[in-house]
Specification:
Layout (H helix, E strand, L loop, with lengths): L4 H9 L4 E3 L4 H4 L5 E12 L19 E5 L5 E4 L4 E11 L4 E7 L1 H4 L3 E2 L6 E2 L4 E10 L5 E4 L3 E9 L37
Antiparallel strand pairs: 1-5, 2-3, 2-5, 2-11, 4-10, 5-9, 6-8, 6-11, 7-9
Length: 194
C-alpha cells in the first residue's frame, strides 16, 4: 500500500521514516510523495583510456569519473546526451516494513531530464542519500541548481517486516552514501579477467 500525504507526514513526525534535513511539508509534500532536492555533488565520466567497459575486468570505475562539487544554489549544466551521478540534499532512512521508490518530476521530464535510468527502489532498512542517474535526452543543455526539487520519493508498506534489511545485509554495496559512488558491479564477478 502506498502511503498518503497524511501517512508520510505521520511517519516522519513519529520518526519511523527519518529525513534530514526535515522537509518543508508546505513545499515538498505531495498527495502521495515527498520531493527531494538536488545535492551539491555530482560525478561525470572523463574521457576513458578504454574503448569499452568490460564488467569482468578489474577496473576502478571511480577513476573513470570526475567529482564536481557546486556551491549552495549554484548551477550544474547537463548537456544533451550527458550522464551524471548526483546525490540528493536529504538523507533518509527507512524501517524494516517500508520501502521507497524514486520518481522523476514531470516538469523536468518534459524537458528531457531523466532522474534515474534504473535503480528506483530503496529497500527496507535503507540509510543514506539517494544517488540519481541523471540524463539529458533533450536537444538542449539544461541548467539544474543545487537545492532545487529534483525527484519525488514514495513509500510503500510491506506485507510484513523484511527479515534482512538493506543496512544489515553484508551483500549491499551502497549503504550510507554521502556522495555519489561509481558502479561496483565488477565486484559481483568471482574471478575477474586479469
Amino acid at each position: 500500500m502506498i502511503l498518503s500525504d497524511r501517512d508520510i507526514k505521520s511517519a516522519i513526525q513519529e520518526g519511523r521514516v527519518k529525513i534530514n534535513p526535515i522537509p518543508d511539508f508546505e513545499k515538498q509534500l505531495g498527495p502521495c510523495s515527498i520531493d527531494l532536492r538536488l545535492g551539491n555533488t555530482m560525478k561525470v565520466f572523463k574521457h576513458s583510456p578504454y574503448p569499452y567497459l568490460d564488467l569482468k575486468r578489474e577496473i576502478n570505475f571511480e577513476e573513470l569519473m570526475d567529482e564536481i562539487v557546486v556551491k549552495e544554489g549554484d548551477p550544474f549544466v547537463l548537456q544533451p546526451g550527458a550522464f551524471a551521478l548526483a546525490i540528493t540534499k536529504e538523507d533518509f532512512s527507512l524501517p524494516n516494513d517500508i520501502m521507497g521508490r524514486l520518481d522523476g518530476r514531470s516538469s523536468l521530464g518534459r524537458l528531457g531530464i531523466v532522474v534515474h535510468s534504473t535503480a528506483a527502489r530503496f529497500d527496507p532498512g535503507w540509510e543514506g542519500r539517494a544517488v540519481m542517474e541523471l540524463g539529458n535526452l533533450g536537444p538542449m543543455p539544461v541548467i539544474l541548481y543545487e537545492g532545487m526539487r529534483i525527484c519525488a520519493l514514495t513509500f510503500e508498506t510491506l506485507t510484513s517486516p523484511a527479515e534482512e534489511s538493506y543496512a544489515k545485509s553484508g551483500k549491499r554495496k551502497y549503504t550510507n552514501q554521502e556522495k555519489p559512488q561509481a558502479s561496483k558491479i565488477n565486484n559481483e564477478f568471482q574471478s575477474p579477467i586479469q
